[in-house]
Hints:
Layout: E1 12-14, E2 20-22, E3 25-26, H1 30-39, E4 40-43, E5 46-50, E6 54-59, E7 64-72, E8 75-80, E9 85-88, E10 94-95, E11 101-105, E12 110-114, H2 116-125, E13 126-129, E14 134-139, E15 142-146
Parallel strand pairs: 1-6, 7-12
Antiparallel strand pairs: 1-2, 2-3, 4-5, 5-6, 7-8, 8-9, 10-11, 11-12, 13-14, 14-15
Amino acid sequence: MSIPDTWQLPKLRVDVDGAWYDDDVEITHPGVLANLRASLRRDAGGYFIQTRVRIPVTVDDVPWVVTRVERRDDRLHAILNDGTEITIDPATLRIGPGDVPYCTVKDSAFQARLSRAATYQLLAFGEYDERTDRGALRLGGRDYELRRPAAS
């Protein structure tokens, strides 16, 4: 089966809030979204979905957003914008531009941005030391420093 000459690749994009678009029209159908999210891949060439052809996906920031963070015993439990429930490895937490926290998700295959609500939830678990001007998250007997990246 050949692809007709008039067929064009969809222009897929994930915005900063994790919403998916096809040619600037938001994709809202739950089944379509689930399929796109499950099919998303990344390599040196960028984000893409592989069907019979490679469909590039423009990602404005990162493809996943942590919408909620809870402390469960000595672990950070999180809910992603696709409804997935995960455990965040606190060692992967980093502060990006604009003081926005990020972490790795999906078996460390992707980065996720913490939503504003999730950021406040995370900060509620931290402890701030005024003497050192540093914050730390204490989990499982370890301290994970919450810090901004060094200025360049």
